[in-house]
Amino acid sequence: MFKSLSALFTLALMSASLPAGAQQAARYGLGRAPTPQEIAAWDIDVRPDGHGLKIGKGTVAQGQKIYDAQCASCHGTFGESNRYMPIAGGVRKDDLQTGRASMLRQSDGLRTLGTKLNYATTLWDYIFRAMPWTNPQSLSVDETYAVTAYMLHLNEIVAGDYELNEKTLLTVQMPNRNGFTTAHGLGRVNGRPDAQGSLCMKACAKEVTIASEMPEFALNQNGNLAQQKRPLGPMRGIDTARYDVGKTGTSTAPTAAASHPSDLLTRHACTSCHGMTSKIIGPGFNEIAAKYEGRADAKVYLSKKMREGGQGVWGAIPMPPQAGLKENDADTIAHWLAAGAK
Hints:
By secondary structure, the protein is mostly helical. The protein contains 13 helices and four strands.
C-alpha cells in the first residue's frame, strides 16, 4: 500500500512540474506545447513603456513615401480620411504643453490619433500589427518607424526632419498623454459609470449620422465573409462580394474568366483605388480599358504606367509607383485591361 501511495505521489509531482501546455495535452490528448518560434511569431505587441519594441529607425521623409503609396488611398493624402477615421488634425499648440487634447472637450471635436492616443508606442504597435488593411504585417520594422514618424509629423507632434527609433519613440510627448483616467466603472470596481441611467433617455438625437465606416471597396479584401468556413461551422456575416461601389446585392461574385487576374488585383490592393465598373479614387477598370481600346501599345504602356506611377492622365490625384508589383504580374493585368477588362 505504501509503495502504491509513493508511486502516486511521484506521478503527482511529475505532473505538477510539466508545462501547462503539456499537462493539458496529457489530460485531453489534444494539442501540444508551442515552440519558442511559434510564441515569438505571436508575441509582437508593444507596451506603453516600450517593452516589445523592435530595433530600427525611420525618418519623416521616408515615411511620407510609404504613406503615399500604401496608406493615403484610405486615410487621405494629408490624413484627412477617405471615409476611414481621420488620422491627422485637431492638435492645438497648447495641447503639447498640457498633455490634454482640448479638442476632445467639444461634443463635435475632431477625433484623430493625434487627439486620442496617449502613447506613441500604441500607434507604432497598431501599424506594425494591422496595417495596411489589405496586407497586414507586410511593413518592415524600419518602414513602421518611418510611417509612424510621418503620422506624428502630420499631427505637428514632431518636426519634418525627425528620425524615429526605439529610443526616440519613448520620448515623444503625445498631446493627450494626461487625458486618460481610470476613475470610472470600467477601471475601478467603485468607479463612477461613464453613462448615467437617469440621463440616457433624455434629449435623444432624432437622427444618427455615421461619421466613419469601412469603404465598400475594402469589404471584399479578405474574401467573402458570408462564404468562409471555420472548423466549428460557417462564419456568419454579410455578403461582401461586391465589386462595384454602391452595389448592395447579396448574390455571390460572378465566376471569373480564366484570364481574369482577380488574385493579382486583390494581392496588390488594386481594388482599393479602382472599382471594376466605377471610380473609387482612380478610374474603374472598365474606364481604363475603354480609354486604351485599340491602342497598339496599350499592354506595354499600361504595364509601365502601373509600375512607375504617374499623374495628370485621370486628374490631379497621383498614382504612386508600385515598387512591389513584379513585371510579369503587371503584364498580366495590362493584357487583361487591353483586352477589355472582361
